[in-house]
Amino acid sequence: MAEELSRRTALKNMVAGTAALGVSAALPSFAMEPYKSTALKGNVNHSVCAWCFGDMELDALCVEAKKIGIKAIDLVGPAGWPTLKKHGLDSSMCNGAEINLVDGWNDPKFHATLIKNYTEMIPKVAAAGYKQLICFSGNRRGKDDETGLNNCVAGLKQVIGIAEKHNVVLVMELLNSKVDHTDYQCDTTKWGAELAKRLGSENFKLLYDIYHMQIDEGNVISNIKKYHPYISHYHTAGVPGRNEIDDTQELFYPAIIKAILATGFKGYLAQEFIPKYKDKIKSLRDAVNICDV
């Protein structure tokens, strides 16, 4: 059923894009460049994660992203900000203060380093005109949910005031612990939302990674509806495999994006799939088109 709906969506987009050119809509749905004749609808703020296109220079990725209509590049630190500014692109999710994905706020032995890093980075993010800075829970290493929550609260409270002062949002990413990030603690939306509730600040939110949460908990649309007040950012990728979000995988992204928009979401949706096809930029264009509901 999802495959058939995806084909219908592709055909609908193709008809809209080819009619103005007088080209027959009977051609295969992906035989044409999807952005040659149709502007994006403007309902979604599109972004793309730089690391997924790591074989491209950031400058070249920015050029291609702008052609597509993408407004921002995700997961770029201070060294890359001048390049983004040169191209008039936003840094939709800044990084560079975290230690890594496994040593995070849930372990007090990392607090001193993290507090120093975030205390220094938050003002830099604000001075550059950006709004969001990523953070991570870290791995459990035997800690139960309650211990991890308490440790995260104790550490993050040391920097949340700085984030509030500079109008920067600290955003903890939800990652799956079944396939890609074994032992990661913030692996369910419920746990992340509980952390946000305990911190009680609008300057702490969640990065809901659709790929990761499909693997760990499923019920993507239901959880988005339930927990959306705690979510400020979304990532995409195909399940399984983390590749293109086309009809080769199990998620039907148009319905998911419509559900996100229905919550009143005005933030960024960033493509974070790893292209497996030779023409990676076409894969990116197609992904944006699929999500541009």
From TrEMBL:
Keyword Plastid assigned: no
Domain Xylose isomerase-like TIM barrel, first and last residues per copy: 84-282
Origin organism lineage: Bacteria, Pseudomonadati, Bacteroidota, Sphingobacteriia, Sphingobacteriales
PANTHER family per record: ISOMERASE, XYLOSE ISOMERASE DOMAIN PROTEIN TIM BARREL
Name under which the protein is recorded: TIM barrel protein
Record organism: Pedobacter gandavensis
Keyword terms of this UniProt record: Isomerase
PROSITE patterns (UniProt xref): TAT
Record-linked InterPro entries: Sugar_Epim/Isomerase, TAT_signal, Xyl_isomerase-like_sf, Xyl_isomerase-like_TIM-brl
Entries under Pfam families matching the protein: AP_endonuc_2 (PF01261)
Domain of life of the native organism: Bacteria
